[in-house]
Amino acid sequence: MTDTLLRTAAAKRMFNPDMRALSPFIALIVLAILGAVINPDFLTASNILNVVTRSAFIAIIAVGATFVISGGGLDLSVGSMAALVAGFTILTLNNGGAEISTLMLGALVAIGLGAACGLANGVIVTFGRIEPFIVTLGTMGIFRSLIIWLAAGGTITMRNADLRELYRPVYFGSIAGIPVPIVVFLAVAAIGAVILYKTAFGRHVIALGSNEDVARYSGVPIWRVRTLTYIIQGICVGIAVLVYVPRLGSATPTTGLLWELQAITAVVIGGTALRGGIGRIWGTVVGAIILELVANIMVLSNFVSEFLVGAVQGAIIIIAMLVQRSLQRGR
Amino acid sequence: MASVLRADNLSKSFGPIEVLSGVSLDLKTGEVHAVIGENGAGKSTLMRILSGHLQPTSGVMHLNDKPTAFASPVEAEREGIVLVHQEILLAPDLTVAQNLFLGRELRRFGFVDDEAMRERTRTVLAELGTAIDPDVEIRHLSIADRQLVQIARALLVPHKIVAFDEPTAVLTPVEAESLFDIVRRLSQQGVAVLYISHRLNEVKAIADRVTVLRDGRLVATREIESLEPIEMARLMVGRDMSKLYPEKPDTASADTIMTVRHMTVPDYVDNVSFTLRRGEILGFGGLIGAGRTELFEGLVGLRRAKGTITLDDRDVYFRDARHAMASGIVYLSEDRKGKGLLLQQDLRTNLTLATLERFTRGPFINVAAEDAALDAAIGDFDIRTRRRDLLAGQLSGGNQQKLLLAKMMLAKPRIVIIDEPTRGVDIGTKEQIYRFIASLAEQGCSVIVISSEMQELIGLCHRVLVMRNGRIAGELAQADLSEDAIVFLATGVHEERAAEIAAGHA
User: Fold this and answer.
1) Are A67 and A196 in contact (CB under 8 A)?
2) Which residues does the UniProt record annotate as the domain ABC transporter (chain B) (predicted)?
3) Does residue A1 belong to any structural domain of this protein?
4) Which ipTM score applies to this complex?
């Protein structure tokens, strides 16, 4: 009897794939078909590459957010952090000549400062034992006003035109026909997936988000793991900024505004549980693309004013949660 | 006597799995009817069908000889059938009175009538023989008092049939005794009581009739007079259970492996000292709240504590559980679901969580090695699982405990601290766990067993320390172990009174 049970159960599983994991991919396909029907220009390679390129910043940040959220945390400060890191990076670049070494130094500053901001978030959350919502709400304000103060309320711009030219390919260039931002974003996602799914640290992140007490009683070094998730988030912000800076060549007090909401939306659409314990890197990637795709379809179509993009994206996160909830109940 | 509720040939399947097949039950007014069986025998399913939480796949129920079906617990409640759940389902931040009337608040001019609810709460609690303050918040109450509030909440609706699902699982003997008074009073009022329990002695003490389930089937319904606990156990398991406890291995050596001195955990434990010998099974008895759990959580670094721990003649201090594990000490929490296992994750993830660094190849997790470890654990610990990819939360209580044991044994400990090793575990699994603990001692491990079940301490341990109010009240050598002696030390009640309590409970 046990044998037949095993077999029927296994067979059932084969025909009953995890809808929660698949739903963002299905949504992406549905949206692509919708886009193609609405406007024949939609499915052109240049448009698709354009959409994915534009989603790169949010996608890279959202990969980091997947770690924080599946570990049971939350980081609201990423948008402000991006602005601050962008400002500092440009100031660093303005201090050097038009050489590759200047760019390397800038990259070091961006990633280092991002990691430091993440470390600050992580340490306050773990050692201060304060809700991550509150901590990152606080640092969100701090990072944002630091960039405003740094820019004296105005704009921080890359001044050296030669250096700008040198830096330009990082956003506008391509490798084997694929725009650099897409390459970077796929690389970040792939590395993130390996860390989350294949390493002991990734397993510990999921355990922590699943049940902190169980993790603690099992000897998981929860402080270290939690702090590291915020550091990874910070590094992802640093990488996103490096791709973002050559696009406009400046940082302003409104840089990265509301990015945290878009990142969290991408993560949640992707199937990661907001309460922690389930993390889906590739779902997050798809979530970020969906957000940009919706904006693109709205621009290409004449049904809805593109000024309402925010409203549609807001509706999407709510619908995504409802779909997930109903899938969960059905199982 | 008239039968108030009759169930004929109830069956229940979840998908292809039949968890209850053709069970009949006849409940009479004023009787206490116990339903016993191992975990997974179908007791809870039967209870949930009778109280409207589940619908049977086939079979009929008769209420006062009229065919009945309940679509929901609300309908069953309307007919006077109430279920007292095993878990405490109360809102911790609301007061006793607010919880009692949650979802059915008394109103006056559209506003909640706190005064009336408070009065009514006081009356209901007084009927249960307790004087809990209706205005105190639930989180300030002991587990026993919470249980009472939960019972009071169930009894607030007019009731003809009350079902208790393992009500004494979290109670000490003295508290259980007052629960039995409540049960007896209910049956004197003509209420039919359905009583699910693992504790056969208490079934013997309060039940009129006993229905035994095994593997979803009805084994027997017997009058209590002709049925001794040992026979109940045999019916439940389907084999002779005369030897629940293994022979105590003669392994307790004279050399000390660990000495604990002046251990203090703020608010819980006050200056406790003891020694542990190599190969010894050391019991810790006492009432719930005596500080046993907190003492050992403090010892392994899960709580702030101070004191001296000497391990192998060296003074040590543990920052956290990981640190303690590295020194060969593991602690298995009594709160299996909250602190022991990740219920939403699969068996493999749970098994290797505490020792993940042993299952890596380079920077990556070696899933093949994990799978091999899971195969070994399923075999060694007899973890019964329908599928290997089940979530830990889908296992029965007994199998969860075996999984937790397997997980902690991967750390290859020298000192194993097990808190309530058999709580919520069926009798067949109990026997396996006892044998496992004995074999650990035979292999030279030292085992500390924290238990509120006195029989367990007596049957298993070489030596028992009893705690009361955060201090060690006394030590009992193997020859002096008896329920009376433990109760006396645990409660501080003088011996005649303790004997009375124990007699009432046995």
Assistant:
1) yes
2) 5-240, 252-494
3) no
4) 0.84
